[in-house]
Design brief:
Length: 262
Amino acid sequence: MMHAKSRQLPSLAMRSRAKSKVLLQQGQALVEGLVVLLALMSLWVGVSWLARFQDMALQASHASRYAAFSLSRNLEANIENDMRRHFFSGPAHQWSDRRGKRLLSSALDEIDVQTHRQTALAVQAQPGGALLHAQALRQDWRLDDTGVLAVQLSAAPRLGLASLHNNLPADGLAYFDSQNLLLQRHTSLLTGAGHAADDMAVQQTVANSSLAWSNSANSSYVHGKKIASAMTAVDAGWGRPQPVFDWLEPWSGHVPESHLRN
Protein backbone atom coordinates (compact mmCIF):
# COMPACT_ATOMS: atom_id res chain seq x y z
CA MET A 1 0.00 0.00 0.00
CA MET A 2 2.82 2.36 0.81
CA HIS A 3 4.41 1.72 -2.56
CA ALA A 4 1.12 2.40 -4.37
CA LYS A 5 0.63 5.71 -2.56
CA SER A 6 4.22 6.74 -3.30
CA ARG A 7 3.65 6.08 -6.98
CA GLN A 8 0.44 8.18 -7.00
CA LEU A 9 2.10 11.28 -5.49
CA PRO A 10 4.35 12.06 -8.51
CA SER A 11 1.38 11.49 -10.79
CA LEU A 12 -0.74 14.02 -8.87
CA ALA A 13 2.11 16.53 -8.89
CA MET A 14 2.53 16.20 -12.64
CA ARG A 15 -1.20 16.69 -13.17
CA SER A 16 -1.15 19.80 -10.99
CA ARG A 17 1.77 21.28 -12.90
CA ALA A 18 0.09 20.51 -16.24
CA LYS A 19 -3.14 22.14 -15.09
CA SER A 20 -1.27 25.24 -13.93
CA LYS A 21 0.54 25.40 -17.25
CA VAL A 22 -2.75 25.21 -19.17
CA LEU A 23 -4.25 28.00 -17.06
CA LEU A 24 -1.13 30.10 -17.62
CA GLN A 25 -1.33 29.56 -21.38
CA GLN A 26 -5.01 30.51 -21.39
CA GLY A 27 -4.23 33.75 -19.57
CA GLN A 28 -1.41 34.54 -21.98
CA ALA A 29 -3.69 33.95 -24.98
CA LEU A 30 -6.25 36.33 -23.48
CA VAL A 31 -3.63 39.05 -23.06
CA GLU A 32 -2.36 38.51 -26.60
CA GLY A 33 -5.91 38.71 -27.92
CA LEU A 34 -6.49 42.00 -26.11
CA VAL A 35 -3.26 43.43 -27.53
CA VAL A 36 -4.23 42.40 -31.07
CA LEU A 37 -7.74 43.81 -30.58
CA LEU A 38 -6.28 47.10 -29.38
CA ALA A 39 -3.99 47.24 -32.42
CA LEU A 40 -6.90 46.54 -34.78
CA MET A 41 -9.03 49.22 -33.12
CA SER A 42 -6.21 51.74 -33.47
CA LEU A 43 -5.82 50.78 -37.11
CA TRP A 44 -9.57 51.18 -37.68
CA VAL A 45 -9.57 54.63 -36.08
CA GLY A 46 -6.51 55.66 -38.11
CA VAL A 47 -7.98 54.46 -41.41
CA SER A 48 -11.30 56.18 -40.71
CA TRP A 49 -9.48 59.38 -39.78
CA LEU A 50 -7.30 59.27 -42.90
CA ALA A 51 -10.19 58.42 -45.25
CA ARG A 52 -11.97 61.69 -44.42
CA PHE A 53 -8.98 63.74 -45.45
CA GLN A 54 -8.33 61.60 -48.51
CA ASP A 55 -11.86 62.31 -49.67
CA MET A 56 -11.46 66.01 -48.92
CA ALA A 57 -8.16 66.06 -50.84
CA LEU A 58 -9.87 64.39 -53.81
CA GLN A 59 -12.56 67.07 -53.83
CA ALA A 60 -9.85 69.72 -53.62
CA SER A 61 -8.25 68.25 -56.76
CA HIS A 62 -11.58 68.36 -58.59
CA ALA A 63 -12.18 71.93 -57.42
CA SER A 64 -8.77 73.15 -58.59
CA ARG A 65 -9.38 71.68 -62.06
CA TYR A 66 -12.83 73.26 -62.18
CA ALA A 67 -11.38 76.64 -61.21
CA ALA A 68 -8.59 76.42 -63.79
CA PHE A 69 -10.89 75.53 -66.69
CA SER A 70 -13.48 78.13 -65.67
CA LEU A 71 -10.90 80.90 -65.40
CA SER A 72 -9.35 79.89 -68.72
CA ARG A 73 -12.64 80.84 -70.37
CA ASN A 74 -13.27 83.98 -68.35
CA LEU A 75 -10.61 85.44 -66.08
CA GLU A 76 -13.16 87.77 -64.50
CA ALA A 77 -15.51 84.95 -63.51
CA ASN A 78 -16.41 84.67 -59.83
CA ILE A 79 -16.27 80.92 -59.35
CA GLU A 80 -15.47 80.64 -55.64
CA ASN A 81 -19.07 80.39 -54.44
CA ASP A 82 -20.00 77.80 -57.06
CA MET A 83 -16.84 75.84 -56.37
CA ARG A 84 -17.48 75.74 -52.61
CA ARG A 85 -21.09 74.70 -53.12
CA HIS A 86 -20.36 71.92 -55.62
CA PHE A 87 -17.26 70.35 -54.06
CA PHE A 88 -17.33 71.11 -50.33
CA SER A 89 -20.97 71.14 -49.26
CA GLY A 90 -24.02 68.93 -49.54
CA PRO A 91 -24.90 65.53 -48.04
CA ALA A 92 -21.90 63.80 -49.61
CA HIS A 93 -19.39 66.21 -48.08
CA GLN A 94 -20.28 66.22 -44.40
CA TRP A 95 -16.81 65.51 -43.05
CA SER A 96 -16.48 65.37 -39.27
CA ASP A 97 -13.97 64.34 -36.62
CA ARG A 98 -14.28 61.47 -34.13
CA ARG A 99 -16.63 63.48 -31.94
CA GLY A 100 -18.92 64.39 -34.85
CA LYS A 101 -17.71 67.99 -35.11
CA ARG A 102 -17.71 69.41 -38.63
CA LEU A 103 -14.26 69.82 -40.15
CA LEU A 104 -15.46 72.69 -42.36
CA SER A 105 -17.62 75.57 -41.22
CA SER A 106 -20.94 76.37 -42.86
CA ALA A 107 -19.38 79.43 -44.52
CA LEU A 108 -16.51 77.28 -45.86
CA ASP A 109 -13.98 79.95 -44.97
CA GLU A 110 -11.34 77.23 -44.76
CA ILE A 111 -11.28 77.00 -48.57
CA ASP A 112 -8.97 79.43 -50.34
CA VAL A 113 -8.21 79.84 -54.06
CA GLN A 114 -5.16 81.63 -55.41
CA THR A 115 -4.44 82.22 -59.11
CA HIS A 116 -1.35 83.50 -60.86
CA ARG A 117 0.31 83.34 -64.24
CA GLN A 118 3.75 82.06 -64.97
CA THR A 119 6.26 83.91 -67.12
CA ALA A 120 4.98 84.55 -70.64
CA LEU A 121 6.93 83.56 -73.73
CA ALA A 122 9.25 86.09 -75.31
CA VAL A 123 8.05 87.91 -78.42
CA GLN A 124 10.36 85.86 -80.64
CA ALA A 125 8.82 82.64 -79.31
CA GLN A 126 5.25 83.76 -79.98
CA PRO A 127 3.37 82.67 -83.15
CA GLY A 128 4.56 84.90 -85.99
CA GLY A 129 7.53 86.21 -84.05
CA ALA A 130 8.18 89.94 -83.78
CA LEU A 131 6.43 90.97 -87.02
CA LEU A 132 4.04 93.87 -86.44
CA HIS A 133 1.12 92.31 -88.30
CA ALA A 134 1.68 89.02 -86.49
CA GLN A 135 1.58 90.78 -83.13
CA ALA A 136 -1.67 92.52 -84.06
CA LEU A 137 -3.28 89.26 -85.18
CA ARG A 138 -2.16 87.47 -82.02
CA GLN A 139 -3.83 90.10 -79.88
CA ASP A 140 -7.00 90.24 -81.99
CA TRP A 141 -7.39 86.46 -82.10
CA ARG A 142 -6.29 86.02 -78.47
CA LEU A 143 -3.33 83.87 -79.42
CA ASP A 144 -0.82 85.99 -77.54
CA ASP A 145 0.78 83.92 -74.80
CA THR A 146 0.24 85.52 -71.40
CA GLY A 147 1.75 82.75 -69.30
CA VAL A 148 0.43 79.45 -68.02
CA LEU A 149 -2.52 79.89 -65.68
CA ALA A 150 -1.87 78.25 -62.30
CA VAL A 151 -4.57 77.68 -59.68
CA GLN A 152 -3.75 76.70 -56.10
CA LEU A 153 -6.56 75.54 -53.85
CA SER A 154 -6.02 75.20 -50.11
CA ALA A 155 -8.26 73.50 -47.57
CA ALA A 156 -7.51 73.87 -43.86
CA PRO A 157 -9.89 71.61 -41.87
CA ARG A 158 -10.83 72.77 -38.38
CA LEU A 159 -9.22 70.40 -35.93
CA GLY A 160 -8.62 70.44 -32.20
CA LEU A 161 -6.01 72.63 -30.59
CA ALA A 162 -2.46 71.44 -30.95
CA SER A 163 -1.28 69.27 -28.12
CA LEU A 164 1.11 70.72 -25.57
CA HIS A 165 3.13 67.51 -25.76
CA ASN A 166 4.25 68.03 -29.36
CA ASN A 167 1.43 65.82 -30.65
CA LEU A 168 3.04 62.63 -29.46
CA PRO A 169 1.18 59.37 -30.14
CA ALA A 170 1.26 58.80 -26.37
CA ASP A 171 -1.64 61.25 -26.15
CA GLY A 172 -3.92 58.44 -27.29
CA LEU A 173 -6.77 59.01 -29.71
CA ALA A 174 -6.49 62.75 -29.06
CA TYR A 175 -3.43 62.58 -31.29
CA PHE A 176 -5.74 62.27 -34.31
CA ASP A 177 -7.72 65.35 -33.26
CA SER A 178 -4.73 67.64 -32.79
CA GLN A 179 -3.15 67.49 -36.25
CA ASN A 180 -3.20 70.84 -38.04
CA LEU A 181 -3.39 69.85 -41.69
CA LEU A 182 -3.30 71.96 -44.84
CA LEU A 183 -4.46 70.27 -48.03
CA GLN A 184 -3.19 71.93 -51.21
CA ARG A 185 -3.84 71.03 -54.82
CA HIS A 186 -2.45 72.71 -57.94
CA THR A 187 -3.68 72.79 -61.53
CA SER A 188 -1.85 74.54 -64.37
CA LEU A 189 -3.48 75.16 -67.72
CA LEU A 190 -2.29 76.71 -70.96
CA THR A 191 -4.70 79.45 -72.04
CA GLY A 192 -4.83 81.96 -74.85
CA ALA A 193 -4.79 79.42 -77.68
CA GLY A 194 -7.67 81.04 -79.56
CA HIS A 195 -10.36 78.80 -78.12
CA ALA A 196 -13.99 79.90 -78.22
CA ALA A 197 -17.02 78.71 -76.30
CA ASP A 198 -19.38 78.56 -79.31
CA ASP A 199 -19.97 79.77 -82.87
CA MET A 200 -21.08 83.21 -81.71
CA ALA A 201 -17.84 83.70 -79.79
CA VAL A 202 -15.85 82.79 -82.90
CA GLN A 203 -17.77 85.35 -84.96
CA GLN A 204 -17.21 88.03 -82.34
CA THR A 205 -13.48 87.30 -82.28
CA VAL A 206 -13.27 87.51 -86.06
CA ALA A 207 -15.40 90.67 -86.24
CA ASN A 208 -13.31 92.44 -83.59
CA SER A 209 -10.08 91.89 -85.52
CA SER A 210 -9.45 95.12 -87.43
CA LEU A 211 -6.52 93.73 -89.41
CA ALA A 212 -8.07 90.39 -90.33
CA TRP A 213 -11.69 91.45 -90.85
CA SER A 214 -13.33 94.70 -89.77
CA ASN A 215 -11.22 97.16 -91.82
CA SER A 216 -11.74 95.26 -95.06
CA ALA A 217 -15.34 94.32 -94.27
CA ASN A 218 -16.40 97.88 -93.42
CA SER A 219 -14.81 99.21 -96.60
CA SER A 220 -16.65 96.56 -98.62
CA TYR A 221 -19.92 97.37 -96.84
CA VAL A 222 -19.62 101.06 -97.85
CA HIS A 223 -19.04 100.28 -101.51
CA GLY A 224 -21.66 97.54 -101.51
CA LYS A 225 -24.33 99.83 -100.10
CA LYS A 226 -23.58 102.45 -102.79
CA ILE A 227 -23.95 99.85 -105.52
CA ALA A 228 -27.10 98.44 -103.92
CA SER A 229 -28.77 101.86 -103.79
CA ALA A 230 -28.04 102.39 -107.49
CA MET A 231 -29.15 98.90 -108.55
CA THR A 232 -32.33 98.69 -106.46
CA ALA A 233 -34.56 99.73 -109.38
CA VAL A 234 -32.92 97.23 -111.71
CA ASP A 235 -33.09 94.34 -109.24
CA ALA A 236 -36.72 95.11 -108.38
CA GLY A 237 -37.84 93.88 -111.78
CA TRP A 238 -36.21 90.55 -111.18
CA GLY A 239 -37.56 90.18 -107.65
CA ARG A 240 -34.10 89.82 -106.18
CA PRO A 241 -33.74 90.18 -102.40
CA GLN A 242 -31.81 93.06 -100.94
CA PRO A 243 -28.16 92.31 -100.19
CA VAL A 244 -27.20 91.63 -96.57
CA PHE A 245 -24.25 93.58 -95.26
CA ASP A 246 -23.48 91.34 -92.34
CA TRP A 247 -21.33 88.53 -93.61
CA LEU A 248 -20.92 86.75 -90.29
CA GLU A 249 -24.36 86.52 -88.70
CA PRO A 250 -25.95 84.39 -91.50
CA TRP A 251 -23.31 81.72 -90.82
CA SER A 252 -24.22 81.41 -87.16
CA GLY A 253 -24.70 77.76 -86.25
CA HIS A 254 -23.47 76.46 -89.61
CA VAL A 255 -20.44 74.20 -89.50
CA PRO A 256 -18.74 73.18 -92.77
CA GLU A 257 -19.34 69.53 -93.57
CA SER A 258 -15.61 68.90 -93.77
CA HIS A 259 -15.38 69.62 -90.04
CA LEU A 260 -18.17 67.23 -89.05
CA ARG A 261 -17.31 63.75 -87.84
CA ASN A 262 -19.53 60.71 -87.88
